[in-house]
Design brief:
Elements: H1 7-35, H2 48-60
Helix pairs in contact: 1-2
Protein name: Mobile element protein
Length: 61
């Protein structure tokens, strides 16, 4: 059950979020490296796109 989001809309939003992060992360990582900001880099079982979809779906429900 997806509440306010239909299945097609959910897939469309996921594709948009995933496309955004595919473009955003390389640029962000270059900025972090050049600025000297240290970050944790532990692998995760969920991609950032999947985590963001959980957050978006939660807030729309």
């Amino acid at each position: 059950m997806y509440n306010a989001l239909g299945m097609n809309n959910l897939e469309t939003v996921f594709v948009d979020v995933d496309d955004f992060y595919q473009t955003f992360f390389p640029t962000w990582k270059k900025h972090l490296i050049s600025s000297g900001i240290k970050q944790r880099n532990h692998p995760s079982h969920l991609s950032v796109s999947k985590v963001m979809m959980i957050v978006i779906t939660f807030h729309q429900s």
